[in-house]
Amino acid sequence: MKIIFLDIDGVLNCEDAYKNGFCRKNDEYGQDFYPPSSNLLNQLIEETGAKVVVSSTWRHSGEKIMKEMWNHRKMAGEVIGVTPSMSFSTMQFIIDGKEVDFYPCRGDEIKTWLNMNGFSQCFWSEEFQQESIEKSGIENFIIIDDDSDFLYNQRQHFVHVKPSPRNKKGFHEGHYKQAKEILETPIMELYGFV
What pTM did the predictor assign? Predict the structure, then answer.
């Protein structure tokens, strides 16, 4: 199974969408998606068979609502989950005898979702990585987001939809090509085992 960790604001809603009136339309789930971006995402999902895990703040509405919204808007594929909300929690560690606060980022939330579903990234053991793939059924994943608070070891999986004003079109053709290339590259090749 291939997974898309999907942000929504800045990816499926963007400055051009607001200027053209698309995101002013609301349904019971909130702002509508920008058709050029949602059409490309649908194409990516149909061509790769990827499943969606919502990592956007929209996930705070709950997994059930995200699944209903996805189906209501006739998006391709299916939402199979949402990442855990850890960004407002603080963890404390003791380093050299001092308490240090740690605030998890979105990358930590994605790592936690992957771990909870039996997948671990391993760059030093081909055998362990293959075991993780077989155990979890997750053969590859991408992160599509306009933010950049991800872990270093997620860089091979990251499709950065730069935020406005640098990018006013949201998820566009260049992002689609990058995302498709990552999803179609075996993870063992991404990690340099092949």
Answer: 0.90
